[in-house]
Amino acid sequence: MFLSDVGTSAAAPQILLFLVSELGTPMSVAGLFYLTNLAAPIAGYFVGNYSDRVGERLDLFRLCAGAGFLGWAGVALSTSAWMPYLMSTLLLAFSRAASSQIFAAVHDDLHRNSAHGGEGVVAVVRMALTAGWVIGPVAGAWLAAETSSRTLFWGTAICFLVQIVPLGTRRAHSVSRKVATDLSSGMYDRRGWRAMLPLLVFTGLWVLVYAGEPIKYGFLPIYLDEQLKPDPVIRGAIIGIQPLVEFVLMPFCVMLSRRIGILWLMSIAAALGFAGNLCFATWHSTAGIFAGQILMGAVWGVFGALGIIVAQRLLPQAVATASAIYMSSSALSSALGGVTGGVGVALVGLPNVFLFPALFAALAAIGLGAMARSEIFIRIR
Description:
- The chain folds into two domains: 1-167, Growth Hormone, Chain: A (Up-down Bundle); 188-381, MFS general substrate transporter like domains (Growth Hormone, Chain: A).
- The chain is built from 18 helices and no strands.
- It has helices at residues 2-11, 15-21, 27-30, 39-54, 58-76, 82-95, 97-112, 118-146, 149-162, 177-185, 190-210, 212-228, 232-260, 262-282, 286-314, 319-328, 330-348, 355-373.
- The chain starts with a helix and ends in an 8-residue tail after the last helix.
């Protein structure tokens, strides 16, 4: 997981620059590249559904990782603007399902061995993803500057390929194959969709919380550069504090969830997201931005450690499907945040655009609180 997200986070900030500077793509067209991410939830659902029907996780993980290698290699070899779009839609969409297969395999292994403290194991695996996002952007910017964007994309492709190595030839089968097969066979009728409804509700609330991230990454640097103008050291501290807080808090989130309830803790985290975006919108100083980043680090510490656990508990008969739906939904958040940010800046300008993700987070906090009180969700409290 660490290797996967080092590669992904290294390449993500560089792809638009590559499209514009090396392939001559107009900026208005280059921005549409992120819409190719909308293929990820579809690919993730079909991979997860197939995994639950056949009961095999790690072979599918290897295939998805291989798709990531081919996709990023294709981007590195691109000579026309349409090629990265095609690679992202057809191959990289499936590569995003690799992580969900790992989490499904971890769930099966813990369940098979009746392991206590499984939430802590999942949190440790999830911390590896966060660590990758801490290191990847810095490493990617350095590699692209010292060599080229194409070399960077080859490095990302290699990261996807070598993530297969630590697992070797290990195999892991689902422990609930018959139940999963029965659920999957009825997934397209009313019974199947009713079983998925709690997961879809939770995922929709997660989409609202995460929609603030593309707005923040797109417009917070502009706000800092054009209005607040902090020193480079302060700017670096502002950008780096969120993943640091997230990484430090993750191990403690599991213990907190056992004391106050997992959904209540996530509702509180969404409320912190509301407060953090209000800091960005109304506290017109670097101190306000710093405070907002610390609050957002707490948000992602909670959701990063616990989100996949809740998703799997909401669809225990088909944990690979649940993992894929939840983890690939960030593409929907990116689309929602991108559209909201563009329209919001045109309507209310900076920094008031951050009032929109504050509203999204408030709605998510209310929804998660309602879930915590509902009898339907009592098994995951």
